[in-house]
Design brief:
Elements lengths: L15 H13 L1 H8 L2 E2 L6 E8 L2 E6 L4 E4 L1 H8 L9 H15 L2 H12 L7 E4 L5 H9 L7 E4 L15 E2 L12 E5 L7 H13 L6 E5 L3 H6 L14 E2 L2 H8 L5 E4 L6 E5 L11 H4 L5 H8 L6 H12 L2
Helix pairs in contact: 4-6, 5-12, 11-12
Length: 322
């Protein structure tokens, strides 16, 4: 959905061979490279941002004001103008399919189940934003066959038809154009591919397809994750990870469109975006919602061939890091 898929110029971005040749020099002299980089204005809050790390000759800056890590602003501007740093073509998808399938039948199912339990309104439609080949829809058909009709996936730049799911609920479109409302959804490994301008576009599209109480779970490596767990997550050319978000940074994107952004305690790779429901009365903390989940949403997870398996997966996944 949010991944960049446009023609790139070989003069603008280095080849994979050039990247490999630069890696050793970059790793040997990171402080010197950062010293040469200087400061940059944060594209979210305009705060002065120092060099955080240099990856494949791309400088990443970190803003202490809004806790946002971002690639060189000139690179982000070029991406916004239509130059792709990673071409999401047949070669990309051929390499991506195995990991996409693994996520869809594993961690993404857990995130889906969590989101349903966190959502305070009955879910009639669930959307996987930036679904890629749509394998999560296939996983849902396997584990939640009685409710598969409720689940949709949208991908703006899909792979070739032979790589995609055959689900009738797979939508090749921009989220803003789907013409339906969704009470719940997930967005897995998408946000780190987006510039701030693209993220604002995503937030606007989400607002268009939301209702009071709509809840979406974002799965993306946050700044604490990059700092303390996986510095290699910053990867401009191979994986196309050009930004790294935090809850405070995400609030600057989503709050202007009417969303609240909520942290998931213990999870350095996920957060919640929700449209407040003024009719809901007392707000229940996220971790307590799994015990007070809407009966309709519990039913979605508890019925079918794998009775209660998905409900238990969502409940225990929510508890595991809290």
């Amino acid at each position: 959905m949010g991944r960049v898929h446009r023609e790139s110029s070989k003069e603008d971005f280095p080849s994979p061979a050039a990247i490999e040749g630069q890696q050793q020099t970059q790793d040997e002299e990171p402080s010197e490279a950062c010293a040469e980089a200087g400061f940059a204005d944060c594209p979210l809050c305009e705060g002065e941002s120092s060099c955080f790390r240099v990856v494949d000759s791309v400088v990443y800056h970190a803003c202490d004001v809004c806790d946002f890590i971002f690639a060189d602003p000139d690179l982000l501007q070029r991406v916004d103008r239509g130059m792709a740093i990673r071409e999401y073509n047949e070669h990309y998808w051929a390499a991506e399919l195995a990991s996409a399938r693994q996520r869809s039948y594993g961690s993404s199912l857990a995130r889906l189940a969590e989101a349903l339990l966190y959502c305070t309104i009955p879910v009639k439609r669930f959307i996987d934003i930036g679904t890629g080949p749509g394998y999560l829809l296939d996983a849902v058909a396997r584990y939640l066959p009685h409710s598969a009709h409720r689940f949709y996936g949208v991908e703006k730049f899909p792979p070739l038809a032979r790589y995609r799911t055959h689900s009738p609920n797979y939508i090749c479109a921009d989220l803003a154009d789907v013409g339906m409302a969704f009470e719940c959804g997930v967005c897995v490994e998408v946000l780190e591919h987006l510039t701030p301008a693209m993220a604002r576009g995503l937030a606007a599209a989400m607002a268009k397809v939301s209702v009071p109480g709509s809840l979406f779970l974002f799965n993306t490596g946050l700044t604490d994750y990059v700092r303390n767990e996986d510095p290699g997550y910053l990867d401009p050319y191979f994986r196309g990870h050009i930004t790294c978000w935090s809850v405070s940074a995400a609030r600057r994107i989503f709050e202007p469109f009417g969303f609240e952004v909520l942290p998931l305690p213990g999870k350095t790779w996920a957060f919640i975006v929700e449209i407040p429901d003024s009719s809901a009365g007392i707000r229940v903390p996220l971790i307590d919602r799994i015990w007070l989940a809407d009966p309709e949403n519990v039913k979605i997870l508890s019925c079918g061939g794998e009775a209660e398996l998905m409900y238990i997966l969502g409940r225990e996944s929510a508890r595991a890091y809290s």
